[in-house]
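[Q] Does anyone have a clean structure-token version of this?
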Amino acid sequence: MKKNIIIIILSIGILGLGGYIGYDKFLNQPEVKDKEQSKNEKVENDQKQDEKIEQKDIDYFKDYLYYFMPEVTASHFLKNIDTFSEDDIRNYIFYYYSNQVNQGKLEADVQVGEYDGTFTYTVSKEEVAKLVNKYFGIENFMLTGNSKGRSGVKRINDNIYQIYWFATGWFSPECELTSVVYNGKNVKVTGKIYKTEETDFKENSEIIFNLVYNNGNYNLKSIEYSEENR
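[A] Here you go.
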């Protein structure tokens, strides 16, 4: 009888000790585990933020920034721009699509009736929104007004824009991109202005495109133009 009592007492003791160990190991550790997990996640997030992006060379940006160049855009972007207005973005849309048509990369709308020297190109609001998101990082962009004059962009309806222009030309300097500097996800692309004859711009003045890497694109955030570095 005594032997049975001793066995029962030992069994209870062993079960109690096992329960305490199990509690201490499995139930009393979440706080420690949560702290370790939070610490590891912070390290991983910091590493992702500091992770170097694939650095493109200057030839990449010659193509990427082509439709911001003064000879293509009648020097519209050859100025200081801290924040791109809707007018700036409308101009970019206009020069992007009209030059694509002029270069034979896109086909102009079929003219009906006698040709009067104008061209038009019709594009969906969705396609324009993708273009603006790629270059300016603005999601779901939509024009709120129309251009005035013989060239520009107008809304045909809620889903369609029309780019329209008159066959003409302009004098503008040329721009040669000279350097690309990376600072994390920020990218500074510098260009030199030349062939400024018949324009008001100074030879060898400088233009800087400030971009930021965002989901595979380089969003243009600002432009700096200076004649002091010539």
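[Q] Thanks! Anything notable?
[A] The CA atoms of residues 117 and 166 lie 6 Å apart.
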